[in-house]
Each structure stands twice: as structure tokens, then as C-alpha cells.
Amino acid sequence: MAFAKSSKIWMNGEFVDWENATVHVLSHALHYGSSVFEGIRSYRTPKGPAVFRLKDHLRRLLDSAKIYRIDPAWDEKALFDAVMKTIRVNRLEECYVRPLIYRGYGDVGVNPRPCPVEAMIAVWEWGAYLGPEAVEKGVDVQVSTWQRFAPNTLPAMAKCAANYMNSQLVKMEALDNGFAEGIITNTGGRICEGSGENIFLVWRGRLLTPPLSASILPGITRESVITLAREMGYEVVEQEIPREALYVCDEIFFTGTAAEITPIRSVDRISVGGGSKGPVTKRLQERYAGIASGTMKDEHGWLDFVPGGER
Ligand SMILES: Cc1ncc(COP(=O)(O)O)c(C=O)c1O
């Protein structure tokens, strides 16, 4: 296994041992992609473990479910408590949190409605998503030959498992070509996002990022960075971005719960700016990490401390 197992997984309200957290092979989600999920991080802070923007992640999870007409038995409060308990039960100081709501085993046709709606929450220790050096040195990426799904096909605002078939093609192509990640363009040929990250360009002192209408996931890290950058005095513009802007802008970085803020040092083997982490990326990284790790003031109330984990 490429990651560290923890001990218990929350399944439909009960804790089960990691090895026993299984589903039937005829579960609807396995055949038709009918599940929605989240990726969340809990950070080690001087006051004990704290989850970053948990309510916002759970709201997006329930929004994803609503888009797909999935009606789970757990509301935001119940899922909030379940996430906290799962972290506590596994005694982790710092972890990644993966809640998933899925259509289970009940019928085998495309119509999902006869299948039960089930849920699980797993937590595990997970380091830097794009490699240990990525956050400092930056990553080399390519513009993918694969496009994002068109508007009104698969809803990009929903974090649905099915969307990640597109992301998997992008990721495998990038890795096969020797890159860490791929940048996806949308059907209009404009910049969209990475296979699991949103993207920002620094252009003559301003920050540019694609709007939701560009078929992106409404990233919570993206929203945090927009907020922090504006507070730090940068102008942030959500606008359509042509591919060639990637080659001539001053800095580029990915944002995501897993990738956090990762600088991009080259695109299609063309170096970005000076080919190393730029000053705007660095300032934003420091601010983001400072808040998440509890060493800078959490003015927005983004941290929720794990009950029982206090120091
Ligand atoms: C396709 C895609 N875009 C963007 C993001 C970043 O979203 P967030 O910052 O909420 O993790 C993710 C990660 O979840 C993703 O999978």
C-alpha cells in the first residue's frame, strides 16, 4: 500500500476495523460512478489537531449529493461529529479525511434510486500530494491533451467520483510523460484546473484564476487563497485564461486540500518566471500554512479543533 493505514473507518454510523470496511461487488457506485466525496485535512496545532474548513467541505459534500439527487440520512452536523470522532478514534495528530456518500447494493440497473444511500469516513496520514520537494521547489507540468467535460454533461461543481475518470486520464498521461501533473483546458480551449487542483497565475502583480463557469471544482483552498490574497493587498481576478498565458506569466501555482499551495516551475518544458518559487506564491504559502498550523491568527474561523484532542 502506498499510504499508511489507520485503525477504524466510520461506515453508516458504526466504526469498523480498516480491513473489514468492505462493500458488495454489485454496489451501484462501483458500476456507475454514483458517489460524491470530499478531501479534507486536519493539522497539528499547538492546541491539538484542528480540521481546516470542515463545515465548508461538508456543505460542498451535501451540495454534490443534492446535484445528484442523493439524499443521505446524515446532515451537516451529524457528519461534522462523525468526522471529529473518526479522527479521535484513530488518534491522529495530522491526517487527511475522506468522507464518501455512495449508492450501495440494491439493484443493478442505471436508475440509482432503488439502491441504499450509504456513507463512510476514513482518515490516514498523508504527506505532500505532489511529492516531498514540490512545495519548496515547484513541479513540472504539461498541458493535457485531454479536455474537461463540457458544461451540462458531468456537473463540474459536484465532487463526484465519475469526474475523476477524466482526471485519471490527465494524471496518467502527465506521469507517463515525466511530469508531476497535467493542466486541463475546457471545451473552449481555456485553462481550467489540474487533475486534482485549482490553478492561479501571477500576472504583473495581479492574481488570475479561472471562474466557476470554466468547468472547475469550486475549491475551498482556491477560495481561501482568494480571501488571503485580497487581504494582503493583491488584486484577484476570476477570468478566462488562454493557454499561452501559462508561458509568459510571472508565477503559477496549484491549490488544493491535498496539494495545498504548490508552485509550478515549468509548463510544457518552458520555465515559469525564474523557474523557481516566486515571491507571491511564497507569501501566500506562509500565510496559508500559518493559519492551518495554528501559528497565525485564524481570523476567519477556519479551524475546528478535534474534541478531546486539546493540549
Ligand atoms: C478537480 C479538482 N479541482 C480542484 C480541487 C481543489 O479543491 P479543494 O481546494 O477544495 O481541495 C480538487 C481537490 O479536491 C480537485 O479534485
What would your notes on this structure say?
The chain has 311 residues and is an alpha+beta fold. It has 2 domains: 8-124, Aminotransferase class 4, branched-chain amino acid transferase, N-terminal domain (D-amino Acid Aminotransferase, Chain A, domain 1, 2-Layer Sandwich), CATH 3.30.470.10; 134-292, D-amino Acid Aminotransferase, Chain A, domain 2 (Alpha-Beta Barrel). Helices cover 26% and strands 27% of the residues. The strands form 2 sheets. Strands 8, 9, 10, 11, 12, 13, 14, 15 and 16 form a 9-stranded mixed beta sheet that branches. Strands 1, 2, 3, 4, 5, 6, 7 and 17 form an 8-stranded antiparallel beta sheet that branches. The longest helix has 14 residues, at 54-67. It is globular, with a radius of gyration of 19 Å. The model has no long low-confidence stretch (mean pLDDT 97). Bound molecules: pyridoxal-5'-phosphate (PLP). Pyridoxal-5'-phosphate binds at residues 39, 167, 193, 196-198, 217, 219-222, 255-257.
Structurally, the number of domains stands at 2
Low-pLDDT residue intervals, each spanning 5 or more residues: none
- Shape, please? globular
**What is the CATH top level name of the largest domain?**
Alpha Beta
Distance between the termini: 32 Å
> What name does the CATH topology of the largest domain carry?
D-amino Acid Aminotransferase, Chain A, domain 2
Number of strands: 17
Ligand inventory reads: pyridoxal-5'-phosphate
- Strand coverage percent: 25-35%
Individual helix count: 8
Profile the largest sheet. 9 strands, mixed
Helix fraction by DSSP (H/I, runs of at least 4): 25-40%
What is the architecture of the largest domain at the second tier of CATH?
Alpha-Beta Barrel
Mean pLDDT: 97
* Alpha-beta content class: alpha+beta
